[in-house]
């Protein structure tokens, strides 16, 4: 297994920090793909932290289990997101994201109440993965916490949503890893 090595921290307006436990290296099922992973405890998920990616996407359980079999999310160490409110890509804004290695994912925008670390941040927009090429049976699917600014016309990144919230959740674009 692995141990927690540190945290991903975002300063909150009232002097507190939004902190997520983080580990550098590999997590089970992602051997050979070292990186910085953070634990989103409230959701029971692990996500790759990427300062060069603008999106915050999670693996949608309904899709993953439809392609990998019933209860397969229970075997996926990164975990899958279970919608608390109805979610369906047929009734949402969708797009395809392609990564540098050529892997592409289909994502749709979803909004739900989130808790980051010990802080309830309320309604946030994020994306749910509902397709991948190559499929997850060939290449592992992952949750991603991107911290970079989104180009115009894209989905709003987590950090900028926290800055824009009323009352303000985060005062600056500064984060520590």
The ordered H/E elements are: EEEEEHEEEEH
Helical content class: under 10%
Shape: globular
Beta-strand fraction estimate: 35-45%
Low-confidence stretches: none
Supply the number of structural domains.
Answer: 1
Alpha carbon gyration radius = 16 Å
CATH architecture: Beta Barrel
Number of helical regions: 2
Structural class: mainly beta
CATH fold naming: Cathepsin D, subunit A, domain 1
Termini distance? 21 Å
* Multimeric organization: single chain
- Average pLDDT works out at 78
Offer a quick outline of the entry.
This protein has 177 residues and is mainly beta.
Describe the structure.
A hairpin with a 5-residue loop joins strand 1 and strand 2. The longest helix has 8 residues, at 61-68. This protein has 177 residues and is mainly β. Strands 1-2-3-4-9-5-8-7-6 form a 9-stranded mixed beta sheet, sandwiched between helices. The chain has one domain: Cathepsin D, subunit A, domain 1 (Beta Barrel), CATH 2.40.70. The mean pLDDT is 78. The chain contains 2 helices and 9 strands; from the N terminus they run βββββαββββα.
Properties at a glance:
single chain; 177 residues; mainly beta; Cathepsin D, subunit A, domain 1; nine-stranded mixed sheet; 2 helices; globular
Topology:
Elements: E1 6-11, E2 17-25, E3 35-40, E4 45-50, E5 56-59, H1 61-68, E6 94-98, E7 104-116, E8 119-133, E9 144-146, H2 158-164
Parallel strand pairs: 4-9, 5-8
Antiparallel strand pairs: 1-2, 2-3, 3-4, 5-9, 6-7, 7-8
